[in-house]
Inverse folding.
């Protein structure tokens, strides 16, 4: 809304000559919906004489534009997904639609877990502005643990050395096959002197090498871990480090 301000003086709408009212002619007008300086002129004529008065009216924009964010705020997106900014709209009581003038700063890296801020700002022709901030959280993979036939810690998964273990897990959907961090998976020898339960791996495979696959029917990944026959009578910890930085382990006892 705009207000009429800075009026230099007021005049009467009728003039009087020798006691008789005379009509006043008004020229010009102020538009309260368009900021600017307007001149309104008042004049009256009687007996061949004319008198005139002028009023200066300044219409000022006193209201800032308003930004409205589209979509949710805050937002959550999955690791490694493609982030599309839902954007925002902006309107102003005088300038109208200012959506095309919105400036967005900040970015979202879905390959790094954490919080990000997108800042939307806009200004109207009178210099008033508005700013809104959207918070975007990049979530890690939705890893819920290893599935059968592999048991999660503290259990020791017992199997024959040299066989391949089907290490199955889910990430909440198909994230592609580029899910492991560099150097992962890896294993190190650990002590077998423990009171942790020993559970047999009821399903093993024969494989020439380790490999990763995804089964859309079960929505599961399977890392076929080829073990070494020289690991007989030892225990090892398998460490799976994902690209989102999370680390997951399983322990094995080889016979």
């Amino acid at each position: 809304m705009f207000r009429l301000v800075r009026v230099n003086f007021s005049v009467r709408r009728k003039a009087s000559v020798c006691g008789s009212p005379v009509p006043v002619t008004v020229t010009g007008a102020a538009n309260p919906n368009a900021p600017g300086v307007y001149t309104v002129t008042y004049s009256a004529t009687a007996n061949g004489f004319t008198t005139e008065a002028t009023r200066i009216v300044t219409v000022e924009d006193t209201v800032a534009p308003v930004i409205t964010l589209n979509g949710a705020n805050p937002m959550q997106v999955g690791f490694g997904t493609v982030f599309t900014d839902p954007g925002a709209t902006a309107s102003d009581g005088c300038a109208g639609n200012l959506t095309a003038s919105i400036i967005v700063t900040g970015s979202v890296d879905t390959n790094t877990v954490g919080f990000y801020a997108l800042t939307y700002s806009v200004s109207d022709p009178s210099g008033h502005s508005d700013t809104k901030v959207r918070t975007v959280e990049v979530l890690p993979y939705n890893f819920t643990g290893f599935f059968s036939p592999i048991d999660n810690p503290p259990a020791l998964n017992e199997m024959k050395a040299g066989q391949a273990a089907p290490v199955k897990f889910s990430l909440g959907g198909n994230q592609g096959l580029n899910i492991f961090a560099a150097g992962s998976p890896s294993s190190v020898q650990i002590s077998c002197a423990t009171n942790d339960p020993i559970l047999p791996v009821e399903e093993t495979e024969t494989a020439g090498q380790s490999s990763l696959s995804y089964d859309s029917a079960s929505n599961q990944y399977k890392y076929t871990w080829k073990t070494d026959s020289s690991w007989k009578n030892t225990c090892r910890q398998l460490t799976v480090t994902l690209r989102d930085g999370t680390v997951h382990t399983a322990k094995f006892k080889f016979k």
About this structure: The first strand starts at residue 2 and ends at 5. Residues 146-254 form a domain with the Immunoglobulin-like fold (CATH 2.60.40). The chain has three domains: 2-61, 66-139, 146-254. DSSP finds no helices and 22 strands in the chain.
